[in-house]
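Table S2 (continued). Query chain:
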Amino acid sequence: MKVVIVGAGVAGLGIGWRLLQAGAQVTILERGQPAQGATWAAAGMLAVTAELEEAGEPERTFALHSDSLWPGFAAELEQVSGAGIGFVRGGALLLAGDAAQLEALRSRGAVVDGAGARALVPMLAGDIPGGLWAADEARVDNRALGEALTIAFLKAGGNLLPQEAAVTIEERGGAAWVMTPYGRHHADAIVIAAGAWSGLLGDIPITPVKGEMIALMPPASDALPGPVIWGNGVYMVPREQGGEKRLLVGASMQETGFDTSLSSAVRDDLRARAQSLIPTLRHWTLADHWAGLRPKSPDGLPLLGLLRSNIFVAGGQFRNGILLAPAIADLMADMVLGKTKINPAFDPKRFS
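Corresponding output:
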């Protein structure tokens, strides 16, 4: 079976890798460089507790399933690629702003008081009343993940064509192909996994949502916090690689089309919010500031399944693309191979 995938982000690479393992021939067309879009711009949290508080049952069940796949997925990927991806269950601390918020968090799990929160993260401000401690929350180095998936895909025999954007998808007489500026790519099945750009390839209701983030670098005397921290409208993710320490702080949300320009006002707001939780951050150096585009569907749920004929879509993951990556890779590969059916909650045709 010959499959063409549009998009070499974490979804497209993961699906392609699984299809290759099942014996398919796979080509991925990427408008830029592999894993340099939303995969690169993310923070790498597998935020089951923080992100899914108001999620419906289909989304929550799928997210929990994907979270359970992550340890095996990470181990397999590291073994195949020879590259570490920084998967760790380091926990997450969701901070309350006041006593009422702390009380409301009790229904969601184990709550710690202010002293307990500072025992977990000693640098927290003294007036924080406590928070929800999610000890099993995990994170991964999303940029290392993208590199490892690229290596695994290529090692498995995949054909990866960077700087080759899909322009149109055409069908005739049961055949389908993707047109690019450089040629025509025929396939038995096509998977559109182009992130925020998926909507440009047909009647796919996915729109871009811009998110800006910053990275702070500590002085030599300061350590990074251990867990991921959520509070005051931001999250903070510790990241250490190659001897470099960074604290990632995010993220804004703006529906501004495909604009990825950076705002000094957003940068300063992210930093101020983080410093209100950890005052010593005012002495840390601003190391980076970037923006990415999240793919969002009208109802916030992913689009996973058959769009028409032999054309599939895997998109609309919004803020959970990294978390859902292992489950999407398995599900979409099985769907393309005819081994499973569409979950109605994620059916791409549900808006028709």
